[in-house]
Amino acid sequence: MSGAVTPPQGTPKLRIRGLRKAFGSKQVLDGIDLDVASGTSMVVIGGSGSGKSVLLRCILGLIEPDAGSIEVDGVDVLRLRRREREAVNRRIGMLFQNGALFDSLTVWENVAFGLMARRQINRRDAREKAGDVLRQVGLDPSVGLLSPSELSGGMQKRVGLARAIAAQPEILFFDEPTTGLDPIMGAVIDGLIVECVRTLGSTAIAITHDMASATRIGDAAAMLYRGRLVWQGPAASLLESGNPLVDQFTHGRREGPISMELRR
Amino acid sequence: MSGVLSLVASLGAIVLGFVRAAGSLALFALAAVSHLFRPPFYWRNFLSAFVEFAYFSLPVVALTALFSGGVIALQSYTGFARYNAQSAIAGIVVLSVVRELGPVLAGLIVAGRVGSAMAAEIGTMRVTDQIDALGTLSTNPMKYLVTPRLLAGTLALPLLVVVADILGVLGGFIVSVVKLGFSPNAYIANTFSVMQPIDVNVGLVKAAVFGFLIALMGCYNGYHSRGGAQGVGSATTASVVAASILVLAFDYMLTEMFFSR
């Protein structure tokens, strides 16, 4: 947790204000306001193309937003210099949708990549540490010698999770963590995510359109629709939010305000 | 009138597109080179790229050079025998190989073999989010992926060209001695009397420039690939085509710079 700054009491771990991003004439994010309290898990739901991934990539610094602010512990990361931004990113872990494991490296090198990149550890210790983290996500350390292409989809997700938590980040991001997995493996991955977040005491932000996953992972939830957050509330109330957009989405109904958009 | 205007507009769009692409490529190259002077440097990636460039390309470059040297000897003999100028063949072979064929053939072969593989690898990393993942793991993708490959290309191709030069001359020597009946000693003496240090040096400079360009085009096209498997395929093709054209264009420019009178 190096580089952490103690924020004033009551400051959200992550605060987003007026975030806007357009690609050409398409306004993907249209004024996002979002607070995520420290130590909680926020799930952002929304249909394909609603801007979920763009939101995540803006927070991670992979895409530069057109306007707005993104504060981590009260510091606007969009105004930081490159090195300062890199220091903030060291406190962040990310599980990508398809794992995004480096296929030219072995599993243990993937897991320990962040630690070695930060010069926190030599290769021998990194290998031992990777074994420990693999055990933490339910894999045998011997898996570390395999190549990512030799793993099943579920194992790749576990390795991706191991890589994300290896440096014990303060903030964890999950991009569609259960996509492509069968329901049982999805539940297993969700369970691991919840356990890792609780063990590390991290703040988590997950984007998903898997309702079972959303309710399992999230303390709070928000729905993104046409670049705006149209609803925020407890994740437990997702299935009975009273918001017609959320209700239609969470129950997968064909009729409703969203279907009109799909027909255009 | 409107037809003329639309033609001018199309030409303008093409020129603007070209200038934009050239600017983007130049900035990409500048950023990658600047990382050479800012630690950390990823030696493991450099060595892996260097082996890919120099070691695994060696057999095909060596065979191509050997046969090309032999072909030049045969073709020169056909032409020069008409004027009783067979003694010039050794000089023609060594100058052709050392100044032009060695660097250009090695460049074109490496562009097809290594440049394409580089574009495909980096392109796949782009479309599967591996490059974004590097960024989230405190690693600058440019520094990790591009800079080591550029340095490897720049240093490895001159080594390949040294081998190509030797084998190209050897190919000419074998054909001249075995098939055309030249005296081995006279052939070797002629070769060394014609070849000057500048011939070899310029060939090596060309090789370094070609190596840089091949790695640059492979990395640039891969890094900017979009749209899944099709995008990676397009990036691979574009890298080979662009690198091949650049090798030939820079070959002319460097020849003009060093040898024009």
Concise account of the structure shown:
Chain A: GO terms for molecular function: ATP binding; ATP hydrolysis activity. The complex is a heterodimer of chains A (264) and B (261). With 264 residues, chain A is α/β, with parallel strands linked by helices.
How would you characterize the overall build of this protein?
- Chain A is of the alpha/beta class and 264 residues long.
- Chain A has helices at residues 52-60, 82-89, 107-111, 113-117, 123-136, 153-165, 183-200, 211-217, 244-251, 257-263; strands at residues 14-23, 26-36, 41-45, 67-72, 75-76, 92-95, 171-175, 203-208, 220-225, 228-234.
- Chain A has 2 domains: 11-91 and 169-235, Rossmann fold; 98-162, no CATH class.
- In chain A, 36% of the residues lie in helices and 23% in strands.
- In chain A, the strands form 2 sheets. Chain A has a 6-stranded mixed beta sheet with strand order 6-7-8-3-9-10, with helices on both faces. In chain A, strands 2-1-4-5 form a 4-stranded antiparallel beta sheet, with helices on one face.
- In chain A, strand 1 and strand 2 form a beta hairpin.
- Chain B is an all-alpha fold.
- In chain B, 86% of the residues lie in helices and 0% in strands.
- Chain B has one domain (42-259).
- The chains are: A alpha/beta (264), B mainly alpha (261).
- Chains A and B meet through strand 6 and helix 4 of A and helix 4 and helix 5 of B.
- Chain A: It comes from Lichenicoccus roseus.
- Chain A: Residues 14-251 form the ABC transporter domain.
